[in-house]
Structure formats: C-alpha cells, structure tokens
Amino acid sequence: MTSKSKQFRVTVLCEDIAHHRFIRSYLIYRGIDKRNITKFSNMMSRNNAAVLKHYSESVQLYRSKANHLNIALVVMIDADNKTVEERLREFDAKLDAKKADLNQKTRDDDEKIAIFVPARNIETWFHYIFGYTDCNEQDDYKKYYTNDDAHKAAEILAKDICPDDLPENALPSLQHACNELKRLQSD
Amino acid sequence: MLKRIYIHNFKCFVNFEAHIDKINLFLGANGSGKTSVFNVLNMLQRFISNGEKVSDLFKSRDLTRWLSDQPIQQFESDIAGNGGMYRYHLEIEHQSDKQLVRVKRESLFFDQQPLYEFEIETDERGMAVGKGWLYNDKPEHEGIFFPSGWTRSGLFDLQERHDNKKLSWFKRYVDQLFIVKIEPRAMRAETRKSQTQPESDMSNYADWFDYLNDEYRREVKLLEDELKQVIKGFELFQFKKSGDAKILKLEFTNNMIFRLDELSDGQRALIALYTLLYCLPDECLLCIDEPENFLALPEIQPWLDSLYDRHEETPLQAILISHHPRIINYLANNAGFWFSRPENNHVRIQKISDDEDAGLSIARLIELGWIYDE
User: Fold this and answer.
1) How far is B287 from chain A (nearest CA, A)?
2) Touching check for B315 and chain A: CB below 8 Å?
3) Which of A40, A62, B107, B113 is least enclosed by beta carbons within 10 angstroms?
4) B314 CB near a chain A CB, below 8 Å?
5) Band (B124; pLDDT cuts 50, 70, 90)
6) Residue B165 pLDDT > 60, yes or no?
7) Contact list, B326 vs chain A (CB under 8 Å)
8) What angle, 0 to 180 degrees and rounded to 10, lies between the N-to-C axes of helices B217-230 and B205-215?
9) Spatial separation of the C-alpha atoms in residues B8 and B76, rounded to whole Å
10) Model confidence pLDDT, tens digit, residues B293-347
11) Mean per-residue pLDDT for A57-70?
C-alpha cells in the first residue's frame, strides 16, 4: 500500500488520541517505521476546529518539502453532523476558497495528502471493524469505545480487512478512506 | 491496575479519592498535591515491600493541620488484577503526646474475601493487643491467628506459598511500583551490586541496569534498538570491570565509548525514560514526575507515542505529572486530572473533560492558561 522506504515520513494532523493512535498503528502495520510518523504541531487533542485551522499550514509545509523528500500528510477529522463531502469542501476552502467555490480540486493527484473523514466518527469505524457490519454513519457509537480500541481496530483493518478490497456494503466513509490511501502509494 | 486511591488526614488530603485510568496525567498548580499522591504510593510500597517501620514513614507532622482532633490516618487502594479486585486498607494511629505511631488496622481483601486482617483490640486487662488473621486462597478458609505487631506491615514477612497465591500476587504488584523523578546528574555509571528496583531519582541506574541485563535480556535488546533511533550514534551498552566495581558505558559509532555519567543530562534522561518503558515487568504501575525535564521538544511526542505503544502491547499503567504544554495538550482532554486546593483548603481532584458537566472543562483550563489552544 504505502512506501516501505525507511526514508518515507508521514505527518499526521488529527483531532485526538483515538485518531492519532488509529492512524499511527495502521501505518506501522502497513510497514512505515514508527519513528517516521510524526504528529503535526502542538495542537490540543480536542476537536475538529483545530484540524481545519492547521490544515492549510500543514499542506504548505508538505509542499515546501515534497519535491526533495519522500513525505506524506495524513489528515483525519470526524464528519460529526456533516457529510464527508461537506468536510472535504471545508478543507478545500481552507486551501483555496475560489477553487472550492467552483468545486475544483485543491490537491494535485500526485500529492501524497490523504484526508480521512470517518462518518459519523472514528468510533463508527471501530464498530464496523469489530464486526458490526450493519452499523450506519448516522448513529453515534462513541459510548462503546475508548482510546484503547484504536490500536486493535487498526490492526484488524490492516491485517484482516484491507488486504482484500473492502466489501461493497462497507461504510462509505471507509470506502472513501481506502481511495485516499492510494495517494500514499510509492512512486 | 490501580483503580482507586483514598487518602484521609495526610497533609492536605481529607477524604481524598481518585479513580485512576490506564494512562493518567496529573495537572495542577505547585502545592496542589500531585506529588504527594506519588509520595503516599511510595510510602505504602516501602511499608509493605521493604518492611520499613510505620514510625519511620508516617510522621505525625504529616497529619492534616486542621483535623487536630483526629489521630487516625487512613489509606486505601483498589487494585484490579489476578482476575479480581483487591482492596488494601491501612489505618495509622498517632498519639502525639506519647510520640507513638502505630498500625491500628491493616487489611487486604480479594473480591471481598479476606486475605489478611490486623487490628488493635483491648484485652480484658484494658491493654492494647494487636491481633492478626491470615487466610489462604480458599474463600471458605476461616483464617489462622497470625502474630503480627503494630510497628510494621504484617504483609512484609509473608512468604509465597502454594496456598496464598492471591496474597502473593498483591505483594508482587506492590514490589513493582515504579515511582520516579529522574535526576540525570545523579545517575551513576559505577555499580558494585545489582538492584532490582531503580531509586526514585534513578541514581542507581547502573545497579538496576546490571539486574536488567541479566534478567531482561530480550527487553534490553529492544531498548538498545530503540535508543539507536533516539540517540544519534548510539550502538550498545557495555560493562567494563574496574577493580571490584563495573562501569556502565555506552558505545557509539566509530568506537567512541563514554561512561554513562559522561553523557549529557538530556541523553541520560532519555536512557532512563526509555528503559522505564522497555524493561518493566507486565502489569506494573509507572509514576513519573515531570518526564519532560531535560528533553528537547522533538523528543517528547516520540516518547509519549512509545508510552502508548508499550501500554498497548502489555498492560502498563502510567501516571504522569507534567507542566509541559506538549504533554498537557496531548493528554489533558483524554487522561487529565486537575488538582486544586481552593482557598488553601484540602486537595480536590477533578477529571478534565470536554463535557461541561463531567468535571473540569477544557474551556476553563484554557481560561486559566493551563492549556494552549493554538
């Protein structure tokens, strides 16, 4: 899936510990060296506003180095009460408001910038990954999970679910994330 | 795993009760009681595991000043493990006029089944008599009289047997509390005798490493692999004989070799911090006061990541005390506990939460300047 080069470095911009542990564990299971996964900024582990606030800055940092370094940026934000598309438009608007208004792309196809938007939130993904495949993206399953579940969910996703294509009935936001993951492919 | 600790009539702790999670961050102003919780855990460990005298550990001057009419101190902890829940209870009586400090009551229960009970009673002559009862693993066991005194913990002398595995598990757990505030400049390179535990300042690092190097070879290898990533040029640890002592040295690339005490403060702190993550036994509690001291900013998050990695691999429980924004911002909302002493009164603890009704809110902490909402 992702580059296994020791020099491949990933910066993670996300909301909280559950996001961070999930992404970090998943990337490690997919062969990324753990020392090459760094957390963006000293932002507080709290909410989606901080992710949106720092997105433009993190993309600029990525673009300033991407020409000469093998790097990637992984962003995660819960959809919460919005749709995945609405969240993506929020990110687009942070980068280029005009393009966002015209519904144009703000990330080039070859840019290793992946945006994951769990809907309704990361716990919905946990619920699906732990076998409740009939769950939906509207209900909130937050109360069933803690930060400790992030690591195990990432392991199951990386080892048992992702090696094959996702089932057709998989959560749409997870399907979208799988497509986003392709952006991290090696050249 | 430590689930709960209760402290009463000790310094500024009055009916203090804390419910502890797997990873915890204690936050609060200086003097709000954070480190005193570590001190209590350390005193209980020395009382139970080292057999230190109650009068050497629990001083009358540590009684809560405004409870002068109450001579009894109480400590209690709930520990989940071994398939059930332990409750350890200790009451200490202070008679300041007689300069007497003694154990009034000590008990250990496992899922409400008694394993050990001690209590001071008054006999027919009106004399105080200490009576201890020891139980084995069978819930129906009625207990046998156990001649224990009131100067030390009755648990200290008890040896592991085939029929007291529940009690032995608890003693091992207490043996394996690691409560440290790393002082890199105190970390000596010389060792004459290995030690199974680090001192609270890690000054005996070489003694402890000597033990780890024999008993935890696999973990030491993992530690060396990690330190290769963390400390530029590091290759491996080695001991060199020097008279009747051994000197702990670190080999770097190009055959550069340095004694442990020749390294920088930051390098020594990193070595101590990663050793604590890689070489501790399973199911232990690690308490670190200000782990970020001496570290460069980019080293803090990788260590936090490794702490969580370790916690996910084995059931390591950790309590951190920190004033550092990197640690606070990462942990406060998920693992934070706020210590305060309103109007210099007794210590109060609140869970930090995004939910306004569930404890101290993040918004309030930002307002107080404790959290940096960039």
Assistant:
1) 19
2) no
3) B113
4) no
5) confident
6) yes
7) 42
8) 120
9) 9
10) 999 888 999 999 999 988 888 889 999 999 888 888 888 888 999 999 988 789 9
11) 93
pTM of the model: 0.90
Residue A110, both tokens = 């070859």
Residues 177-196 of chain B with CB under 8 A from chain A are none
Q: Which amino acid is at B179?
A: I
Handedness of CA B54, B57, B59, B65 (dihedral sign): negative
Contact present, B347 and B15 (Cβ < 8 Å):
no
For A137-157, the pLDDT digits (tens) are 999 999 999 888 999 999 999
The confidence score (pLDDT) of residue A169 equals 86
> Which residue is listed with tokens 């930060």?
A147
Note whether B87 and B106 are within 8 A (CB): no
CA distance B28 to A43: 20
Chain B residue closest in CA terms to A149: B312
Please give the single-letter amino acid code of residue A7: Q
pLDDT band at B109 (very low <50, low <70, confident <90, very high): very high
pLDDT, residue A4, reads: 47
For residue B208, the one-letter residue type is: W
Q: Are strands B177-180 and B144-146 parallel, antiparallel or unpaired?
A: unpaired
Chain A residues near residue B362 by CB distance under 8 angstroms: 44, 46
Q: How far is CA B13 from CA A143, A146, B75, B302, in A?
A: 33, 30, 10, 35
Q: Does B329 touch chain A (CB under 8 A)?
A: yes
Q: Collapsing DSSP states into helix, strand and coil, what is residue B201?
A: coil
Task: For residue B339, give the DSSP letter.
Answer: E
Judging by beta carbons within 10 Å of its beta carbon (0-12, 13-18, 19+), is residue B217 exposed, middle or buried?
A: exposed
Q: Which amino acid does the sequence have at B192?
A: R
Structure-token match 């050249």, residue found? A187
Backbone angles phi, psi at B361, to 5 degrees: -80, 155
Q: What is the mean pLDDT of residues B77-85?
A: 96
Task: Compare all CA atoms of chain A with the CA of B307 and give the residue at the minimum distance.
Answer: A21
On whether any CB of chain A is under 8 Å from the CB of B7, the answer is no
Residue of B229, B308, B374 lying closest to A21 (CB–CB)? B308
